[in-house]
Inverse folding.
């Protein structure tokens, strides 16, 4: 029997089962159950997204009633905007640093804290704690630490005789963005650590026992067993971090306001400036659409992997 | 299975499955629709008025006490929403978001010039000409304040504050350094050197957001360009690419290079800079009388430790920077007469005194010299001096931000004076072409 015939037989058998008296056909019932969520989804996500798409094709100032269709002008203007160039480069740098470092540190902490020890839960809490703090509070705390005159960082450098390394951390183009990245890494290390810890606990101990008996040292066990077993987790962490990184707004806005000058502008803050401050809602929304497209593109492999595994 | 048992229809009065499902679908849809519908409507009328401002908590408490009195006397009920500490860089965004969210306040506080103008241009405010006549605001309020709330020749706001900026100094630091209050620009430079030699940074400025350190640059531009050219530059009627502007940028850079302003000023928040001044880390800052009520009084330091003076410019007319803040009525306000009555109540001299306003636009409400001696001193000084428009109100926000970027590049040495002047000319001419 060919595979095709088998499929048809299976389909007939399924139909027979659902046609049995007393058994209700699902019909529109599942849709009705999904409807409340669907309505909310359409009303609060799809409809605003379509509206945003429309606004990005107009010259709306964000306040008045006038919305003139300008086609793709707003998108073409992105290429002439030097701040968009700065913001795009900053977004790429931000993504690289705030993905690679938290992933690496998260994995490192997870491996170290995966051991059975009385202190492990305490350290897990400590490392995860920054992730639950509001970003605006974190921004304020770090801005005080970076204060050029009274901040803890420059004070420590002065105290230990390294006053030559003192900087105006947030007040110069050369250090401002990197200085904002540090709290971002600090905040974002806890999340991958948690995912890696969960994944590490699902790796069977037998694998390590067998490897030990075969003479594999800890480094080999990590590279041959641990790291490959975490492949799915790497994927999830990477995809979610990528989306998160491209949406960066809070820390930059609160710590530097995009400055000095435009040096720490990212796409999110530049979008905000145009929509909410410059009364260029059409242009700002075009930036928002670009951010969304990039974030969605980054999320597609993750979604596909989830669909495949389910 | 009968239809009756399956769907619960017929005589059974209990809720049916179909009914529950229909309701489940309809409820969120109706909720969404109703939120849209109510979102378009504005407040006011039966529920009273809403007033949005940016007062700090103490000032808002005083305001609420006064508004309770208004309600008792006239029945006009007002709810105050305040966004404390948001400042000119952020408050307009909050207001705009609220208007677009369909929850426009009936009355809002806003700065004059280019900050308030977009709301007028978008027809979101009411022309208050009629109420000016009814309440006689022309004779009761400062003329420059009224001018600041006049847009395209129409009065779309009522001035609440005429804020003027001068130098606020730590007299103890000046004294210990052997410096005197300067009466010429050269004397100011001498004072800076003496203060610096005593181990204190002369000027306390915060460059985050751009507008605080701008106060120093606009002063230096006034020194180098003089009143007429300064005004023409702000209006875009003269080219910025000229010697006076180059000199002002060179001077600006020199203040930083010589250590006369806060180290790393570009990364310092304005509030932190003003706090540092009050704590004696810096010798002076450029600010308005609110610094007394908001920073000096809460610090508990004796008022005698501080002083205020007009920054010397070396020109016949010694001017200082200033800006206007006022109240506007929303074009969608359902009770504009009540809103106007509310504004009239707020600008009454006795209410202004109760609100402890040290920069009131009400002519009969100067600062109380017993409660705010420094503000009273400044009020006397400012009367002898004219005002030039503060630069972040002279330019639209996008233009001001480009200008702040030039300031930032000058301080970091990325631009020299001539290049900064050329860049500024480009920024201003781009703006004037589209204006």
């Amino acid at each position: 029997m060919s595979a095709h015939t088998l499929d048809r037989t299976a389909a007939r058998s399924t139909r027979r089962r659902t046609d049995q008296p007393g058994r209700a056909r699902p019909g529109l019932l599942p849709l009705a159950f999904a409807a409340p969520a669907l309505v909310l989804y359409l009303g609060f996500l799809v409809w605003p997204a379509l509206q945003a798409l429309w606004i990005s094709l107009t010259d709306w100032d964000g306040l008045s009633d006038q919305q003139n269709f300008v086609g793709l002008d707003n998108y073409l203007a992105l290429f002439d905007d030097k701040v968009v160039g700065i913001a795009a480069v900053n977004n790429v740098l931000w993504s690289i640093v705030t993905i690679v470092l938290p992933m690496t540190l998260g994995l490192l902490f997870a491996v170290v804290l995966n051991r059975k020890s009385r202190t492990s839960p305490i350290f897990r809490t400590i490392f995860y704690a920054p992730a639950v703090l509001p970003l605006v509070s974190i921004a304020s705390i770090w801005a005080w630490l970076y204060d050029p005159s009274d901040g803890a960082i420059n004070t420590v450098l002065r105290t230990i005789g390294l006053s030559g390394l003192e900087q105006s951390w947030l007040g110069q183009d050369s250090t401002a963005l990197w200085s904002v990245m540090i709290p971002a890494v600090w905040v974002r290390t806890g999340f991958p650590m948690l995912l890696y810890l969960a994944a590490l606990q699902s790796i069977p101990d037998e694998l390590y026992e067998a490897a030990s008996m075969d003479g594999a040292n800890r480094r080999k066990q990590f590279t041959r067993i641990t790291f490959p077993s975490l492949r799915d987790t790497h994927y999830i962490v990477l995809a979610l971090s990528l989306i998160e990184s491209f949406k960066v707004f809070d820390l930059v806005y609160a710590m530097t306001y995009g400055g000095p000058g435009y040096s720490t502008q990212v796409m999110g803050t530049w979008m905000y400036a145009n929509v909410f401050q410059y009364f260029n809602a059409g242009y700002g929304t075009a930036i928002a659409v670009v951010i969304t497209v990039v974030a969605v593109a980054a999320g597609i492999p993750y979604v596909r992997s989830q669909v495949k595994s389910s | 299975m009968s239809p009756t048992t399956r769907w619960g229809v017929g005589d059974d009065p209990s809720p049916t499955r179909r009914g529950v499902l229909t309701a489940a679908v309809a409820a969120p849809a109706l909720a969404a629709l109703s939120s849209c519908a109510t979102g378009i409507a504005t407040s006011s009328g039966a529920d009273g008025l809403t007033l949005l401002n940016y007062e700090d908590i103490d000032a808002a408490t005083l305001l609420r006490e006064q508004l309770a009195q208004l309600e008792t006397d006239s029945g006009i009920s007002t709810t105050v929403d305040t966004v404390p500490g948001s400042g000119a860089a952020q408050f307009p965004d909050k207001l705009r978001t609220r208007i677009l969210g369909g929850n426009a306040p009936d009355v809002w506080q806003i700065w004059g010039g280019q900050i308030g103008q977009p709301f007028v241009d978008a027809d979101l405010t009411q022309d208050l000409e009629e109420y000016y006549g009814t309440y006689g605001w022309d004779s009761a309020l400062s003329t420059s304040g009224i001018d600041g709330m006049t847009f395209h020749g129409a009065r779309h706001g009522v001035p609440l504050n005429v804020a003027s900026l001068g130098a606020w100094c730590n007299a103890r630091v000046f004294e210990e350094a052997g410096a005197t209050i300067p009466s010429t620009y050269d004397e100011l430079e001498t004072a800076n050197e003496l203060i610096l030699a005593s181990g204190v940074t002369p000027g306390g400025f915060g460059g985050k957001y751009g507008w605080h350190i701008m106060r120093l640059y606009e002063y230096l531009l006034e020194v180098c360009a003089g009143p007429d050219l300064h005004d023409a530059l702000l209006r875009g009627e003269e080219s910025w690419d000229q010697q006076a502007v180059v000199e002002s940028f060179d001077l600006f850079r020199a203040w930083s290079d010589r250590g006369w302003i806060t180290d790393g000023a570009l990364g310092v928040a304005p509030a932190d800079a003003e706090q540092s001044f009050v704590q004696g880390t810096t010798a002076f800052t450029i600010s308005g009388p609110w610094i007394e009520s908001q920073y000096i009084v809460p610090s508990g330091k004796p008022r005698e430790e501080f002083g205020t003076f007009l920054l010397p410019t070396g020109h016949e007319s010694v001017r200082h920077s200033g800006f206007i803040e006022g109240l506007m009525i929303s074009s969608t306000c359902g009770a504009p007469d009540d809103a106007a009555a509310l504004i009239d109540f707020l600008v009454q001299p006795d209410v202004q005194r109760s609100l402890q306003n040290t920069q009131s636009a009400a002519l009969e409400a100067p600062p109380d010299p017993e409660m705010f001696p420094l503000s009273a001193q400044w009020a006397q000084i400012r009367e002898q001096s004219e005002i030039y428009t503060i630069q972040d109100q002279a330019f639209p926000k996008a233009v001001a931000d480009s200008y702040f970027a030039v300031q930032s590049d000058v301080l970091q040495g990325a631009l020299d004076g001539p290049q900064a002047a050329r860049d500024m000319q480009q920024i201003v001419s781009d703006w004037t072409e589209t204006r």
Q: What stands out?
A: The two ends of chain B are 75 Å apart (CA to CA). Chain B has two domains: 45-164+323-373, 166-321+389-434.
